[in-house]
Design a protein that fits this description.
The protein is of the alpha+beta class. The chain contains 15 helices and 24 strands. Helices cover 28% and strands 22% of the residues.
C-alpha cells in the first residue's frame, strides 16, 4: 500500500538531482593456489574440480609449463624475483607478451609482499608459469595455462581506478537512488581486455547538481526473498576452504582460518567421492544432495555424533598443530580409538523406530486404499490411512520423494539409474506399481529380460553362441546376447551386459570371449567400495565371471656373505 501511494504521488512529477562522486580502487587478485584455480575454472568453463586438477597436473608433469599445482599458497618465495622476471620475458603469445613487457618496462615487477612473502609459503608456492613455451596443448589445457599466465602478469599491474557516482533524485520528497561506475584507469584489468565500457562499468546519463528530472514512468515491483542458492563446485570449494567460519569456538575458528576442510589436493577427491557413493549428484553446474545423503545426515544427528557432521574436530586438530608434529602420535591415536569406540557404541545401542528428521509428504493417492496422505519416514514411505508402505531403498538405490510422487501418480517412474544387482553390477530400470500394489521392476521392451525381435539388417552378429552352439550372438541396445536368449521360446541364457561395474565392454572383447572363452585383461572396473581394479572376463559353465591377473612375485634380494674382518699386519 505504501509503495502504491508513492507511485501515485510521484507519477508525472519533477525531481531534483543531487549526486556524490568518489574515487575507488580495485587491486588485482592474488596468484593462484589450487582451490582458487579450481573455483574459477568451474565458474568460467564449467570444469569439475577433479578435471581442473588433472589439467594442471598435465601442464606440470607432461608439458612442464606450470609449477607444482597441489599447493595451498598464493605467494612466492622472496628469492624468486629474478625467476619471475625471466618468466615474464618468455611468453610467445603476442597478447600475453605485450602485457608482460609493459609490466617489465614500467618497473612494476618488484619484490612486494602481496606477491613475495616467505611467511605465506609452506611446502609449495603459488602456481605460475615455468617459462617453458607451451606446445601441443589441447583446448582446456590452453585455457588453464592462459588463466595462470594472465594472473601472473596482472598481479604486478597497478590497481584499477574507478569513479563511483551515487545520485539521489528527490520527487515530492521521496528519494530515488541511481548508482554509476566508470573506469578511469583500467590498471590490471587491461590484462583481461577490460579497458573500459565493459561489465565493470555502470555508466549513467550525466547530470549537474540541482538539475531537474522529469518522471516519464514509474513501476512498483513486488519481490520475495530467495533461499540460498544451491552449491556449485566453485561455491562448495569456497565453503570447504572457509569451513572455519562455521565453528563457534573462537580458538578453533582461528586455528582453521588458513586450512578449512581437506587440502587443495584432496578437496576435489572428497567431492567426487560423495558423487560416486551417491550422497550428492550433479545437475548442470549445481550439486544436489540425494535422498541417501539426507538419510545419512539424519541418522548421524539422531545418533548425536555431531563430530562427524561439523568442522569442530578438524579445528581441534589444527589447534593442536598436528601438521607441525606438536601433537604426540600416541595421544592422537588414543583419542581416535576413544572416538571410534564411542560412535560404535552409539550405533549398537541405537533404536531407530522414531528417527527425527525433515521428511516429505507425498501429494498422491495410496495405491491400496486410494486415499492418503503418504508420508516419508527414515526407512519408508507410508500411507497414513492404511497399512500400505514402500521401502525407500530398492536394489541398493534410494528413492527421491519426487520419484515416489511420479510412481504413485502415474503408476510407473523411470528408467532410473543407480540400481545394483546382487553381484554388484549397476543397471537401470523402470519401476512400476505391480499387481500386489508394491513397487517392482519393469524392464520394458528394451530391458534385459524382455523378448526382442532380431532384425538381422539392423543388429550386428558377433559369432556363434558359446553356450547353446546354435544361435548367433547379436549386439543389442544394452547387451550382447544370444538370439535364443531373447526370443521365445528362450532356450539359452548367454548374455553379456555392455556395462559391467562402470566399465564399458567393447564388442571386440566379447568376440574374444565367445571364441576363446576369455577376454584380454580389462582395466578400470569399479568395485562396490569405489576402487578400480583390473580383471579378465571368463566364460565358465555358461556363466560370465572375473579372473584376476596373477601377481608377480618379487625377486628376493640376495644377501651378500659377511665380509671377513680386516686384520692388522
Amino acid at each position: 500500500e505504501q509503495a502504491a501511494a508513492i507511485e501515485q504521488k510521484c507519477s508525472g512529477k519533477i525531481g531534483i538531482v543531487t549526486e556524490d562522486k568518489k574515487p575507488a580502487t580495485q587491486l588485482s587478485p592474488l596468484l593462484y593456489d589450487l582451490t582458487t584455480l579450481q573455483r574459477e575454472a568451474n565458474n568460467r568453463f564449467g570444469l569439475h574440480a577433479r578435471r581442473t586438477l588433472q589439467l594442471a597436473q598435465a601442464l606440470y608433469e607432461k608439458h612442464k609449463v606450470l609449477t607444482y599445482p597441489r599447493t595451498d599458497s598464493r605467494y612466492l618465495p622472496e628469492d624468486n624475483l629474478a625467476q619471475v622476471r625471466k618468466v615474464m620475458s618468455s611468453f610467445d603469445d603476442p597478447e600475453l607478451a605485450r602485457h608482460a613487457k609493459k609490466a617489465l618496462s614500467s618497473d612494476w615487477v618488484k619484490p612486494t609482499k602481496r606477491v613475495f612473502n616467505n611467511a605465506k609459503v609452506s611446502d609449495h608456492h603459488a602456481i605460475i608459469p615455468t617459462g617453458t613455451s607451451p606446445a601441443h596443448l589441447d583446448d582446456f589445457e590452453r585455457k588453464i595455462f592462459d588463466m595462470v599466465a594472465r594472473r601472473t602478469i596482472a598481479v604486478f599491474y597497478p590497481a584499477a581506478q574507478f569513479e563511483v557516482t551515487t545520485r539521489i533524485t528527490r520527487i515530492e520528497g521521496e528519494p530515488f537512488k541511481t548508482d554509476g561506475k566508470i573506469i578511469l584507469d583500467p590498471g590490471w584489468l587491461a590484462v583481461y581486455g577490460r579497458e573500459g565500457g565493459g561489465q565493470d562499468e555502470q555508466a549513467i546519463v550525466p547530470a549537474s547538481a540541482g538539475e531537474s528530472a522529469s518522471v516519464i514512468g514509474i513501476e512498483t515491483k513486488q519481490n520475495e526473498t530467495k533461499p540460498p542458492a544451491r552449491f556449485t563446485e566453485a561455491t562448495l570449494l569456497s565453503a570447504m576452504e572457509g569451513a572455519g567460519k562455521l565453528v563457534e569456538d573462537e580458538e578453533l575458528r582461528e586455528a582453521m582460518r588458513e586450512r578449512g576442510l581437506g587440502t587443495p589436493a584432496t578437496r576435489s577427491q572428497i567431492i567426487e567421492g560423495l558423487i560416486h557413493d551417491g550422497y550428492i549428484e550433479r545437475k548442470g553446474k549445481e550439486l544436489i544432495v540425494t535422498a541417501k545423503g539426507l538419510s545419512l545426515i539424519t541418522l548421524l544427528r539422531n545418533l548425536h555424533t555431531e563430530v562427524l557432521v561439523t568442522p569442530e574436530m578438524t579445528g581441534e586438530w589444527e589447534s593442536q598443530q598436528m601438521a607441525h608434529g606438536k601433537l604426540d602420535r600416541q595421544h592422537f591415536m588414543g583419542d581416535i580409538r576413544d572416538l571410534t569406540r564411542d560412535i560404535v557404541e552409539k550405533v549398537r545401542n541405537f533404536r531407530g523406530e522414531n528417527i527425527e528428521g525433515e521428511y516429505a509428504t507425498i501429494d498422491a493417492k495410496c495405491p491400496n486404499c486410494g486415499d492418503g496422505p503418504i508420508k516419508e519416514d527414515y526407512k519408508t514411505f507410508r500411507c497414513q490411512n492404511c497399512d500400505w508402505l514402500m521401502w525407500k531403498t530398492m536394489a541398493s538405490r534410494q528413492f527421491e520423494p519426487e520419484e515416489v510422487h511420479e510412481l504413485l501418480a502415474k503408476g510407473r517412474v523411470g528408467p532410473l539409474q543407480g540400481f545394483r544387482s546382487k553381484l554388484g553390477r549397476p543397471f537401470e530400470a523402470v519401476v512400476k506399481i505391480g499387481a500386489e500394489k508394491k513397487p517392482q521392476f519393469d524392464f520394458g521392451e528394451n530391458g534385459l529380460d524382455a523378448e526382442q525381435k532380431i532384425d538381422k539388417d539392423k543388429h550386428e552378429a558377433l559369432g556363434v553362441c558359446p553356450v547353446c552352439r546354435k544361435g548367433q550372438v547379436y549386439i543389442l541396445t544394452r547387451s550382447f546376447a544370444c538370439e535364443n536368449a531373447i526370443t521365445a521360446p528362450k532356450t539359452c541364457n548367454f548374455r553379456v551386459s555392455k556395462n559391467i561395474l562402470s566399465r564399458e565392454i567393447p564388442k571386440e572383447e566379447v568376440q574374444k570371449l565367445i571364441t576363446t572363452g576369455k577376454t584380454d585383461l580389462l582395466h578400470k572396473f569399479i568395485s562396490k567400495k569405489g576402487r578400480a581394479f583390473s580383471a579378465y572376463l571368463k566364460l565358465e559353465n555358461g556363466k560370465i565371471g572375473f579372473e584376476f591377473e596373477e601377481k608377480k612375485q618379487r625377486a628376493k634380494k640376495k644377501i651378500a656373505p659377511p665380509r671377513a674382518a680386516a686384520t692388522a699386519n
